[in-house]
Amino acid sequence: MSAGVADIENSMDGLVGFGDLPPAVDALLQRGVAAYRTDKSMADDLFREAMALDRSVLPTYFCLYKIHCYSGRLNAARIVAEAGLEEAARQACWPADWRQWLDSPLAMSEPGRFALYTLKALAFIALKSERFADAEAMLRVLRRQDPTGTVGWTVIAELADALSV
User: Fold this and answer.
1) Whole-angstrom Cα distance, residue 108 to residue 63?
2) Taking the C-alpha atoms of 133, 139, 144 and 145 in order, what is their torsion angle to the nearest 10 degrees?
3) 113: which residues sit within 8 A by CB, 6+ positions away?
4) What span, in angstroms and rounded, lies between the C-alpha atoms of 102 and 158?
5) What is the C-alpha to C-alpha distance for residues 36 and 38, in angstroms, rounded to an integer?
6) Per-residue pLDDT tens digits for 99-152
7) Phi/psi of residue 19, each to 5°?
């Protein structure tokens, strides 16, 4: 099982305990995290190399969409986050289209939490890209599937509320 997204997010400035990953993928992710401090392009290359080795490793998507978001490359972040969301949904046995998640409660698992966390990231990206209706649609799903806000979507909802004033 991989590390939780909060563990990964809080450790982007040091080595990360990604969990039980293929050793080659883990090594590339660790090198990418270290490179991020001084060479963002190299970090991107290392994360993409890790993804090429095994597209099922969810932390790789997180690392990639996070560095793109930090750098203001929102379209690149969105593309990677959407791919990560699709992979996490597949692993959680959820519908591939997040809009279908609103229909009924979904069983939570680590891939499911990653999917919800990534949907939160996509809502943030949508807000930053001034796609307010998309962000609100994503937040509706998050309210339904994570009513207590465990993946932190409430912060994005507050931002959305502030932007709509």
Assistant:
1) 22
2) 130
3) 4, 5, 150, 151
4) 20
5) 6
6) 999 877 788 889 999 999 999 999 999 999 999 999 999 999 999 999 999 999
7) 100, -160
